[in-house]
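Please decode residue identities from the backbone states below.
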């Protein structure tokens, strides 16, 4: 049995989801005529108390569109130094929006209103104009960390009082909402725009929805066009997203429970120094001194457990819809047999095998 914990993006559509895709009513979405895309956009917007939504091919596209609509070249975006929009979107903020970025340290990627306040540039021609604050919830590089709603409220109020826009990279927003019991509408009331991924924990094969007010989405739609993001009979994939919103939200609790059990199993090992607090479906484990994360990852791969490194000394494991209790049991059985010396042995034999 191969256990794939590299990401919550590795999932297969469920039989119900496939059926919904087969049954989808479609039309040309570039003409605005795909009923399933329209329904998905409307549903996502309504859930978050927003006026409109825009279906896009990826979370990178929804984030990059949002940033380019909210800013003008020469502006500055405030975000965490661990933010996906900064680290993992190919320098898109600079390339697509011509904006500079002010990076804040934060606590596992969660920034505060006090820090934002200190980093808003004065209205002076020497400085880039601060126009946008981006947060990520949950915070991927922070180990699925969830923002405190009171802190988000403070950042939101600050943005409003200073005329800044407030965007949320909600690639895993439903993980945060399910874990805290906060409603999407309450969450949405704090933001000018939210990017919602359907292809992470929700288990759809593709797609993200950007939500915001009507004027913002009108401009985002124009931007999506010149990013080459207009899709035609996209209802086939949008149907999977709709199915996911209707059927795969509550079950995220199972992913969170399994992630906690993974953390407990890892903490018993002599090659693991510790784990970040496990709040949702992401586990980040730190290696003891002398063990390289890449070596541990390769040793685990040899035992049928796939995961990713996060820097030189950390591994990331992500639970998802295709990681069941049976997989969890196998994971626990296999991982319990690993040890610092076994990982070192695997490395030596791999090196020996190279010659
Ligand atoms: C926090 C976060 N934001 C955005 C994205 C981008 O999503 P996509 O891969 O659909 O472009 C990811 C992808 O894993 C992510 O983890």
């Amino acid at each position: 049995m191969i256990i794939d914990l590299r990401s919550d993006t590795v999932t297969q559509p469920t039989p119900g989801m496939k059926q919904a895709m087969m049954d989808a009513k479609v039309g040309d979405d570039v003409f605005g005529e795909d009923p399933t895309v329209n329904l998905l956009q409307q549903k996502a917007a309504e859930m978050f108390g927003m006026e409109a939504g825009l279906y896009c091919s990826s979370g990178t596209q929804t984030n990059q569109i949002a940033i380019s609509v909210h800013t003008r070249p020469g502006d500055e975006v405030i975000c965490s130094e661990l933010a996906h929009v900064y680290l993992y979107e190919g320098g898109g903020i600079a390339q697509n929006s011509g904006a500079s970025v002010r990076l804040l340290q934060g606590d596992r990627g969660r920034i505060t209103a006090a820090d934002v306040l200190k980093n808003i540039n004065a209205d002076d021609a020497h400085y880039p104009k601060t126009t946008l604050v981006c947060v990520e919830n949950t915070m991927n590089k922070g180990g699925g960390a969830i923002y405190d709603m009171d802190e988000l409220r403070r950042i939101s109020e600050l943005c409003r009082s200073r005329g800044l826009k407030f965007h949320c990279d909600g690639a895993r927003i439903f993980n945060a909402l399910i874990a805290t019991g906060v409603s999407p509408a309450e969450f949405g009331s704090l933001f000018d725009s939210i990017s919602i991924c359907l292809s992470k924990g929700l288990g759809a094969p593709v797609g993200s929805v950007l939500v915001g007010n009507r004027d913002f989405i009108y401009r985002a739609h124009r931007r999506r066009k010149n990013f080459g993001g207009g899709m035609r009979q996209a209802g086939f994939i949008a149907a999977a997203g709709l199915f996911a919103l209707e059927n795969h939200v509550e079950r995220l609790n199972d992913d969170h429970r399994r992630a906690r059990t993974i953390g407990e199993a890892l903490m018993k090992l002599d090659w693991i120094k510790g784990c970040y607090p496990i709040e949702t479906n992401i586990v980040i484990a730190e290696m003891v001194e002398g063990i390289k994360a890449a070596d541990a990852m390769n040793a685990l791969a040899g035992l049928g457990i796939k995961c990713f490194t996060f820097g030189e000394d950390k591994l990331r494991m992500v639970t998802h819809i295709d990681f069941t209790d049976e997989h969890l049991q196998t994971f626990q059985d296999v991982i319990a047999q690993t040890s610092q010396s076994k990982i070192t042995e695997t490395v030596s034999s791999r090196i020996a095998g190279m010659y």
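Observation: The chain has two domains: 15-247, 251-350.
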